[in-house]
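Open question from group meeting: does this chain pack into something compact, or does most of it stay loose? Before anyone orders reagents, we agreed to write out a predicted structure and look at it together. Recording both the input and the output here so the notebook holds the full record.
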Amino acid sequence: MNTWVKSSYSDRDGTDCVEWAPASAPSGAIPIRDSKRPTGPILRVPAAAFAGLVSAIKGGAFSV
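C-alpha cells returned:
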C-alpha cells in the first residue's frame, strides 16, 4: 500500500493537489495521482523523469 504525499504547491484547502508516493522510488517508478480522485487512475513515472520534473519546477521552468 502506498503512503501518499501532497504537493507543497497545493491550494489552501488541500483539495486540488497532486500526490505522489515517495516510498515507491526504489522500485524505479513514482506513482502520481489526483487527490480529488484517490481511487482514480495512477500515473507511474520513471524515477529519473520525476526527479527531472521536480528539478525543473523548482528551477522556475514552469509557472505554478
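Observations to bring back to the group:
The two ends are 29 Å apart (CA to CA).
The beta strands are 5-6, 18-20, 29-34, 43-46.
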